[in-house]
Design brief:
- This protein is mainly α.
- The protein has a single domain, classed as Hypothetical protein af1432.
- It has ten helices and no strands.
- Helix 4 crosses helix 8.
- The protein starts with a helix and ends with a helix.
Length: about 190
């Protein structure tokens, strides 16, 4: 009976998820704007590069520490997908309220390309991330900053100015609160 039900809806399902896939693949072409603005890098990492690196960090840390890894990975994969529509907006470009409003509008449109069941599930995770009101959401925000520090260290090792990178390291230092993530951060910076 399940197979028959899937067969009946499969064409609509395929059309919906293909639109979502086409949107998400655009993250590979969205550059991380902070690196362009600060370091004047012509070809910085993409948002997809950043998300992939966060997913690796999130998976390892979550599995080691007993968090809900599936939930953390889903939040990580969703956390920047709105940038396929609005681009990577750095904090100094607009108020956090304006950016949040743009992201929420974009997410509504993007998630609209999925079946209702997934829309509801992913929207709930998106809101949780935006509100930063669960241990998983809080961890993802910290992993976001840890990954940023890791990438800053990569750029430092490639010869970019530590003076220009200090703001990235300082932001990470100020926003990472988990003691074990702080330990990892310190090892990244000292390396």
């Amino acid at each position: 009976m399940q197979i028959l039900k899937f067969t009946i809806i499969s064409n609509d399902f395929k059309a919906l998820i293909i639109d979502f896939f086409n949107t998400s693949v655009k993250l590979k072409k969205i550059p991380r704007q902070g690196w362009i603005d600060t370091l004047l890098i012509d070809n910085p990492e993409s948002v997809a590069d950043h998300t992939f690196s966060m997913a690796i960090i999130g998976m390892i840390f979550s599995d080691l520490e007993g968090y809900n890894t599936e939930k953390i990975l889903k939040i990580i994969l969703l956390h920047d997908i709105a940038e396929t529509i609005i681009g990577d907006i750095t904090p100094e470009k607009m108020t956090i309220q304006r950016k949040t409003a743009l992201e929420n509008t974009a997410m509504k449109k993007i998630l609209g390309d999925l079946p209702k069941r997934l829309q509801n599930q992913y929207d709930k995770l998106w809101v949780e991330y935006q509100l930063n009101n669960s241990k998983e959401a809080q961890l993802v925000h910290q992993i976001d900053k840890l990954e940023m520090a890791l990438q800053a260290k990569v750029y430092s090792n490639e010869g970019h100015s530590n003076d220009l990178l200090d703001s990235f390291f300082n932001t990470a230092k100020n926003e990472i609160k988990d003691p074990k993530l702080i330990e990892i951060f310190k090892k990244i910076v000292m390396k």
